[in-house]
Amino acid sequence: MSSIPPPAPAGEPLARLRRQVSDLHQELVRYQLVVWTAGNVSARVPGSDHFVIKPSGVDYDALTEHNMIVCDLQGRVVEGELAPSSDTAAHAYVYRHMPEVGGVVHTHSTYACAWAVRGEPVPCVLTAMADEFGAEIPVGPFALIGDDSIGRGIVETLRGHRSPAVLMQNHGVFTIGKDARAAVKAAVMCEDVARTVHISRQLGAPLPIPGADVDRLYDRYQNVYGQQPAVDPVHAPEGTRPADRGVTA
Question: Which of 67, 107, 108, 245 is found 20 to 30 A from 167 (Cα to Cα)?
Answer without folding.
Answer: 67
